[in-house]
Amino acid sequence: MAGKKWTPEDDRIFTTLWVKNVPLKFIAEVLDRTKRAILHRAYEKGLKRTDRTPDKNHKPLKMIRGNAGTVGMISELQVFIEFEKRGWKVFKPLVEGNASDCIIKHYKTGTTHKIQIKTASYRKDDDSYTCCLTTPQKKRYDNLDVDYFLCKVDRLNTYYIIPYEYSNQETKSCRVSLYPHRMKKYQYKHTRCYEEFRNDWGVIKT
Fold first, then answer.
1. Residue 61's pLDDT is what?
2. 105 DSSP β-pair partners
3. Using CA atoms, how far apart are residues 80 and 88, in angstroms rounded to an integer?
4. Which residue in 21, 48, 111, 165 has its CB near the most CB atoms, within 10 A?
5. Do residues 129 and 120 touch, judged by C-beta distance below 8 A?
6. Is the distance from CB of 101 to CB of 78 less than 8 angstroms?
């Protein structure tokens, strides 16, 4: 029985992750394929790794824990795949450093939106996943640059789709605390609850 067909987008994502030595288990998870299929594709394309350590010795997820750039790149690719599944074409800026990580356009309606992607990492002290909806310079985003924030939860297949107008822009804190793994016990003053946006892709207007 033939396996799932490889699309040009699949190959682009696969090549990007493979040459950056992302663990095999992670690549298989992102592309929803078996490890065997990933290894076979690498053989077909003649791709080689600079890291020759056998994959069985890797510790999934923890390997890239200290590399924020790699974690961010994987989050972006996972978000792009989710958009494509839901009928949105993804356009990335040619130059790095834009306030918008991508622009999405709906295949049927032509509606466009500006997207900023964040990775929510785990905080042991309060048992939550958090990210800051600020620029690398710790400034708030302008509503001309962002329509929606996409917060990908690290290590979990969970996304929060937060409209700009509901992103703490009028509160003191820009930090978002998320609870995909448990019920939230209480609400801090001057903060908002984002659980209603968990995996709610329908919040993006088509």
1. 41
2. 89, 112
3. 9
4. 21
5. yes
6. no
Per DSSP, 172 falls in state S
Q: Which amino acid is at 125?
A: D
As a whole number of angstroms, the distance between CA 132 and CA 114 comes to 18
Closest residue by Cα to residue 104 from 92, 117, 119: 92
Average pLDDT along the chain: 82
Q: Are 135 and 141 a contacting pair, CB within 8 Å? A: yes
Query: Secondary structure of 95-149 in the HEC alphabet?
Result: CCCCCCCEEEEECCCCCEEEEEEEEEEEECCCCEEEEECECCCCCECCCCCCCEE
Residue 186: both structure tokens together: 């209480």
90: its two tokens: 């993804």
pLDDT in tens, 149-180: 999 998 888 999 999 988 755 555 688 899 98
Q: What single-letter amino acid sits at 7?
A: T
Sign of the Cα torsion 130, 15, 42, 68 reads negative
Asked whether the beta carbons of 132 and 174 are under 8 A apart, the reply is yes
Q: Cα separation of 150 and 83, whole Å?
A: 11
> If you search the block for the tokens 């078996």, which residue do you land on?
34
Low-confidence ranges of the chain (pLDDT < 50): 1, 52-66, 190
